[in-house]
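User: Reviewer 2 asked us to show a designed sequence for the structure in our supplementary figure. I'm pasting the structure tokens here. Could you produce the per-position amino acids so we can include them in the response letter?
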């Protein structure tokens, strides 16, 4: 790979390698984002299409990255928000268990701890494996009482690789849900929902996706469509593009056609 430094605002004499902490923003991202911010200074130039067309393009670009459809994607402000949506839509019963890795990032822990408390379920924390093989350790912990397996492509503290295809296969064998936070790897390690088949996947954009804070996306498997949102918003309801009829309250949510990816 040739040097990519010209894509970033990194001065001579600085070599930046710590995208695992925070990825540098691409110059092209700033060139897109700054005019959008400035447009708000003249709100009379902000039309209805500005509310809907950019998100639709975002859904498709995100879906293309992971082998999904635009219908499967939602924009989220943080990983914790997406995990909360997943937690709200997975049925957990007393006596079942939720599997998490030791020293997992808090955004993928707190919601599961609360969900377990509310339903008399158990949190099973996988200790650091002596041989360093997280994949085998997680597989060994999954049993018939497992309802949720949370994970990532790599442990966030040291980058240890985790085989999500194997974990996805085992999770489905016991009828559990697989929920992933790929913030640490998406953009640098290829990922396909067709291969892993998670129930939910969330990613923040400020690391390897080289984007800003407070922006990320969530994948929801088609089998989980039609669930309950974390909050109710007018803009997610059917017909929201017609601002003149917003008080004609709609029961149905808005969905993008699964074929909309052919339109971009």
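Assistant: Here is a per-position design you can include in the supplement:
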């Amino acid at each position: 790979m040739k040097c990519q430094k010209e894509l970033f605002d990194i001065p001579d004499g600085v070599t930046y390698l710590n995208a695992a902490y925070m990825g540098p923003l691409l110059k092209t991202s700033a060139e897109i984002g700054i005019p959008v911010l400035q447009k708000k200074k003249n709100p009379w130039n902000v039309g209805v299409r500005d509310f809907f067309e950019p998100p639709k393009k975002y859904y498709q670009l995100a879906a293309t990255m992971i082998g999904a459809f635009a219908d499967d994607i939602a924009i989220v402000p943080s990983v914790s928000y997406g995990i909360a949506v997943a937690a709200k839509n997975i049925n957990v019963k007393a006596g079942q268990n939720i599997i998490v890795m030791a020293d997992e990032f808090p955004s993928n822990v707190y919601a599961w701890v609360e969900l377990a408390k509310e339903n008399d379920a158990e949190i099973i924390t996988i200790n650091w494996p002596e041989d360093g093989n997280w994949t085998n350790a997680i597989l060994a912990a999954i049993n018939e009482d497992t309802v949720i397996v949370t994970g990532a492509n790599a442990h966030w503290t040291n980058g240890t690789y985790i085989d999500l295809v194997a974990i996805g296969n085992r999770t489905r064998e016991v009828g559990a849900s697989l929920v992933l936070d790929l913030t640490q790897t998406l953009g640098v390690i290829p990922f396909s929902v067709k291969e892993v088949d998670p129930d939910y996947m969330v990613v923040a954009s400020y690391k390897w996706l080289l984007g800003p804070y407070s922006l990320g996306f969530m994948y929801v498997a088609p089998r989980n469509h039609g669930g309950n949102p974390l909050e109710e918003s007018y803009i997610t309801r059917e017909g929201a593009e017609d601002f003149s009829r917003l008080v004609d309250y709609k029961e149905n949510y808005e969905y993008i056609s699964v074929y909309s990816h052919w339109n971009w």
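For the response letter, you might also mention the following. The CA atoms of residues 110 and 245 lie 40 Å apart. Confidence is low (pLDDT under 50) at residues 257-264.
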